[in-house]
Amino acid sequence: MKTQSKTLVGKMLAVAALGLGTMVTLHHPVEAASGSSGQRHEMAGRRRGHRDPAAMLQHMTQELSLTARQQAKIKPILEKASTRRRAVFANTSLSREQKQAAMRRIGDDMHRQMDAILTSTQKAKLRQMKQNHRDHPGQGGPDR
Predict the structure, then answer these.
(1) Second label for 52, Cα 20 to 30 Å away, from 44, 92, 130, 139?
(2) CA–CA separation, 134 and 110 (whole Å)
(3) Is there a single domain that holds both residue 25 and residue 95?
């Protein structure tokens, strides 16, 4: 009887530990997968395609039918915006509101530069894509 009791307690402890591990993993899935909480935001951004210029360019090329010339002009714009965003994100002296405002300025600047490159049809499609993103954040994107 003692052996059965010990076995039952052991199984209950194993199930409890497994449940706790699952809860921690579900609460911090990127950290659990990467092993580093410092990479959490960067990895989440890449997953959504928002921070990786190459993924953004690929998505835009597919959705907007960019020409090779347009791709060559847009690529450095996306790369510069990404670099600027990382610098803002890493700046610990800025408040959350200041970071949000800076990110908005970077995005506005990036879109203004791209508007000079896109055709009117592509601009309309890009506006629709941005609106869809605002209406349904976290859905769609190059990795979905």
Answers:
(1) 92
(2) 17
(3) no
